[in-house]
Every structure is written in C-alpha cells, then in structure tokens.
C-alpha cells in the first residue's frame, strides 16, 4: 500500500479520538488484562504442576518401598520352600524320626511373617508333611492348581497361585508359592508349597493413607487381583486381564499413567512396579480429584483476586469492543474482496500470484516439491457464442465448484487465472499426486454433463496442464515463473492432443522420432488422394498461400507439407528449395499428432529436435510453428502449414495462432479443390515409396534461401 503525502500534525484531542488511537487503547487494555491473566495462570499452572509432580514422586517412592517389602517377605517364603526341597533330597531323611524329619524340613519357616502352612505333597497329591503338625492331614491336594502346574509343566519354577482358602491352617484367603520336587532321575516327585496369608498384604497396605479414592492393588501377571485396599471380598481373584489398565501394567517394568479404574470407575494416577522377578504387579493409585483438591482451593482464591484486579480493565475493553469488532469485520470483507474472484468465488489472479510466490520461496527454503495445475475449459468461446454469456458464467461457477470440492487441503489454493482458465497451487505435492487431482477435476467437470455442441465431447470438458518443481530444482534457484510456463506448455499440449485430458510437463514428447499415429493406413490413403502424380511440380495457388503465411507471420520461410509413409512432400513453399524431407526428421510429422499448432520457439533446446540434422546442419531451423491440415472427409491429418525461421522466436500469440488456423483451413480448401479437379491417382503411390515417380530424387535436407 502506498504511503500518503505528509499532512499537518493534528492536535492531541484529534489523536486521542481517532479510530487508530481507540484501537491502540483497546489493545493496551486487553494487553494488560491478558498480562495479569497470563501471570495468574502461570502461577496457578506451576502450582498445579508442582502438585502433580509431588504426587507422582510420592507414589513412585511408596510403590518402590512396598515392592521391596513384598519381595523381601516372599523371598523368605521361597527360601523356606527351597530349604524343604533340599532337605527332601538328603539321603535317609525318609527313615529319620518324625520329629527330626519335621525339624529338617521346616526349620526355616520361623522367619517368614504371615506364613501359613508349609506343605510337602507326594507325586499323587497326598500331603506327606505339613509345617503345623508332625502328622500330615489326610487331604488330597491333586486338584490344586499349583500341584497340576508343576506336574504337567516341569520347566515351571516358582509358581504363585490365585487366591484360595487354605484346607489346613489359617481359614482366610492365601496365595500359595510352590516349587516342583524331582527325584534323582529328574522325574516328578511332588510339590513343596508355602501359603502366604492375604492378611499380610492387607495389614501392610492399611498402614498407608492415600486419601479418598486411593487404592493399593497386588495382581498376578495373569491379570488376577490377589488383594486390594480398600478391600472387598468380591474383588479377590477378579480377572482384569482384558482391561486397558492392566495392559498398561504389562507394557513396562514400572511406570505411571492416568486411567479410569475398572473396579470402581474412579480416575486415578496409577504408579506400578513389577515385584522383583516374581509374576506379581503392584499398583499404587491416587485419585486425581484428591491430588488436586488442595490446589483447587488455592486456585479459586487466586481466581477471585485476579477477577477483582481485572474488572476495571474489562470495563475499559468493553467500551471499545463494538467499534473494534465493526472495524475488523469491515477489514475482513475488504481483504476477502481483494483476494476473491467475484464470479466463481475462487481466489483471484492477484491472490494467486501472491500465494504462488510465497509457496515458491517456502518450497526453496524447505526443499519440498511444488506443483501447479493450469486448467482451461475446452472450446469455451464457442460455448459462449452458442449459449450466451449468462450460461457461460453459470458454467464457470459450476466448474469452480468442482475445483472447490476437489481441493480440500488447507495449504492448497484454487484460483481463477483469467477468462475460462483456472489454476490450482499444490504445495508439498509430487507429480503423481498432482496428476491424480487433475484427473479428479477433469472427470468431475465432465460429469457435470453441461451440453456443448461446439465441443467434440458434446459436453463441457476441461484440459489440464500439470507441472512440478522438485526440491532439487527449487534449491538451484529456479523461478516460479518457469513453473507457470511448464504448466501452460503442458496445458497447450493437452489441447493439441485432442482436449479433455491431463498432461504433465514431464510427459511432453521428448523422442526425436515422430509419434505413431492411429489408423495410419487410412491416413496415408487420404494423403495419396491429395497428392498428384507429378508431386515435384509447383502449385502456384499453394505457393501463394505459403508466401501469404510467411508475410503475415513475419517469417522468412513457409511450406505446405503432406506427410507420407517415409517422406514429407512440400506441395507449396516459399523461401525453400527442397521438395521433400525424410519423415523421420520432419517437424510436420510431429505436428500431425495433435489438433492445434505445434510451436517450437528454439529447436536447439527442444529434446525432440536438438539433434535433428535440419537443426544441426543446413538449413539450421531454429523456430517452427505448424498447423495440422485436416481432410474434410474422415478428419485425417494430411500434413501441415508451417512457418520456419533461422533464429529463435518467442512463439505465436493467440491472434497469430488463430490466423495460422484460418490459413490452414484455406490450404485444405485449395487441396480439396485440386483433388476434385484432377483425375483420380493411384492411392498406394505415396503410401509406399516415391522412388518410382518421374521426378529427380529429392534433397534429404532443406536449403536456406
């Protein structure tokens, strides 16, 4: 925006009452308000973080202490079990006196707190010894899980059972720690099992005050609840293996997370640890509400103080709110109007240029790909001429709607480039992605089904040109203007090849060999019908058209060619002596592959022609522009009306292209007149070879005049 000329300085009152000053004052008040709120929020947030960190640290320390205590006592029980196993393996113990045998088996049980009974089971599950009496009970323990596990799975080491009620000793719930007994041959000889009363864990956990909603839970790694505080009988041996909370317990040896409890639905901070190398998991859970209860009380007090301090600022900001909102609304409308095309609702050309330049700089900085789609509604001038401009505007809006629905990413931009041309900017999009979107848009516009008699497809269609600058090209300093030029060149190629298609700049023809044409034999037969037996003779009428074409387009040379199987024949020429060239080096052989003019601004930079002998040698073609000659019957591409220059040129503008097309139509009329006015010739002559004609052999390359 241009700066205004200098003006006299206004007085202080005018300054203060100006809209700009009002905005500054409102911004200042809002800034102070936000500053106070931010400071208060920072203090409250820091207090909350400190509270949370303290809760996490306290839970972690408590879990560690409990884990070590539980591991120590279970280790004592395990040593008692292992001691009994070693005693059983002593020779002659089975022959000792009952008191001696009892003492040898169970002398290590005294140091194990809350140890219930220590049982020795035989290979069939019968009790052979018990720590609480000299005479073992007559119970059969073959149905107990800890017995069947060791019997059926010899590799099992220390096994921790699910909670169960003991058949001997303490009547309450216990867990059993057991190990397998093997004879000298390694065969199953029984089980030694030690019971640990759950009362031990309940007493241990009850000494801990975790506040309202807190809990301590001991689980097996199979997901069974062994004990929990606060304790409920229905929680004992409850299966939690399928819950998300338990799965988190198994994910690491220790850790913490926030989750909702399966047992009571309370959201807690869970701190868990696996108990030594035992199949046990200890969970210390603190209610999140309880953790933040004290902090919430402090936060309420802080909020009241901040509310009182901010009240005056709020009143001040409210005085300016309506004015500021109105002005912001107007500014947004102006910005939107400046960036939006009024007819289609897409971005306008100005906004397109701004965004493309910005994305080009960003792509170069980030070394990312940038793609561009250029779209042009096919034969749209004919649509406007036939159906009127109002319907043409409606058609443009419908096509723009297809673009708006297809271009969904926030960073992409659909714009009206000008007239019936549309464009799409696609940051961070490679060529494959851009072509996929181009095909989506093309099929979407065709699917609208708008009638268009002037279009070969009979409905409104679109041609799309796609170009992509990759990260390497962007880093080498290529301008975004080259991206537009490549996309426009691809768009022109899409139209030249028949419209209603998407073409990428990388798909542009690069082969020096002329492309193969469909239905070539019929085309050659049509060419033969227009070519006289004496093809070396001059056609003054066609020479005049060539001379007229060269003069109107400012070129030194113009020729009218018919492209045969192996040669192209110049049936009209100006500024060139040759009567034919081999088809394999003929520019016109490339021209007849499309419907629109083929324009080569500089043949030395075009991969199709840079090594062509007509470019590297005489006559040294640099610029070429040719329009296909299409027969009235069968719509066969016979050859081309073209102009040549020996220096590179910028190309042809729209008016010159239209003039070349009109002159090509005049050429076809003259060829048709000559065909009708002469006797029928042999159609196979030019379709095969010209070596049997009566003229002298033609020059292989053209000569400069």
Automatic annotation (TrEMBL):
Transmembrane keyword on record: yes
UniProt cross-references to Gene3D superfamilies, sorted A to Z: 3.30.450.40, 3.30.70.270, PAS domain
EC number(s) per entry: 2.7.7.65
Key word Glycoprotein present: no
Keywords: Membrane, Transmembrane, Transmembrane helix
Residues of the GGDEF domain: 368-507
InterPro entries: Diguanylate_Cyclase (IPR050469), GAF (IPR003018), GAF-like_dom_sf (IPR029016), GGDEF_dom (IPR000160), His-kinase-like_sensor (IPR054327), Nucleotide_cyclase (IPR029787), Rev_trsase/Diguanyl_cyclase (IPR043128)
Protein name: diguanylate cyclase
Taxonomy of the source species: Bacteria, Pseudomonadati, Pseudomonadota, Alphaproteobacteria, Acetobacterales
